[in-house]
Fold this sequence. Notes:
By secondary structure, this protein is α/β, with parallel strands linked by helices. Helix content is 36%, strand content 20%.
Amino acid sequence: MPRPLQLAVIGAADCDEDAFDAAREVGRLLAEAGCTILTGGLSGVMEAASLGASEAGGTVVDILPGADRDAANDWVQTVIATGCGDARNAMLVNSADGVIAIGGSWGTLSELAFALERELPVIGLGSFEEQLPIERASTPLYAVAWMLDRLGAALTD
């Protein structure tokens, strides 16, 4: 049986309401398409994507920077507590088939660099599209549809 696509949803732990809502919608759409959602496991964009996926019955795997599994947000099924700080960014990206970035700061930028180095498909919603060679999305639906198309999958009805 083929393994489901694993898509990383990355972004800042501190985000505004628009980024939170976009990440929640991305998580929901990915889950409805049968993808496993990977996040850094904390708050903000990571929590919103986990919430959206969970609400849609999806699977969320959080890869935490710390060693405490209880630090994960409440919307995950699987927690990997790495205890290795920012090095977890490489683990997250190395586990992904593609990356959707929503907003973000330095940690997001490092994850994007790892993804570009690995030549993964990357799309951003207000996340370094001006500075990096990544696709720009105007809506969560476009971001998910573009990603799934690049990976040979499609949105389900």
